[in-house]
């Protein structure tokens, strides 16, 4: 059964303030630093994906100052790894679908102003068929807690990953996105691994 999402006003206020603070810090990273950080983080996460023997990997296209995934995308294509991008579910609010992503994939902008693959069921993969999901995040804490944008998309996608062992979730973020602790709810799915430009954190 998929988790239901609700929250108290106080928790919402705390989360909103944290999101604003961390997103501001992320946006202040210079282009030069972004390039350097992405290069080092890519090497770290590539080593982890190799250990996992991941052949089907979902990831995201960078938005709003996130750690750039383009170097990772290029490297995984070169290694022959099958890549997938999320798309907002057209009928079920708050859920994601995943579609194959190649250099020829046509992309469209969704209602969140994020590029996603066009709807082509022949190129869709189910979450449990993925080996790993590289997840975007706004903030993370010392226990692997993850805070996203508040829509619950990845929490729903990953709700059962521990029961079946797939897809293995890996957070990908700047070091400045770490906070000491995050307000958590019962539906929040903690991450077993988070990769930053300087560290591989395992929980």
From TrEMBL:
Keyword Magnesium (UniProt): yes
Keyword Nucleotide-binding: yes
Entry-linked NCBIfam families: MTHFS_bact
Signal peptide residues on this chain, from the entry's feature table: none
Catalytic reactions of this protein: (6S)-5-formyl-5,6,7,8-tetrahydrofolate + ATP = (6R)-5,10-methenyltetrahydrofolate + ADP + phosphate
Class in the EC hierarchy, top level: ligase
Cofactors: Mg(2+)
GO molecular function: 5-formyltetrahydrofolate cyclo-ligase activity; ATP binding; metal ion binding
Pfam families: 5-FTHF_cyc-lig
EC number: 6.3.3.2
Binding site for ATP: 15-19, 146-154
Family statement: Belongs to the 5-formyltetrahydrofolate cyclo-ligase family.
Binding locations of substrate: 61, 66
Keywords: ATP-binding, Ligase, Magnesium, Metal-binding, Nucleotide-binding
Identification of the protein by name: 5-formyltetrahydrofolate cyclo-ligase
Domain of life: Bacteria
One GO BP: folic acid-containing compound biosynthetic process
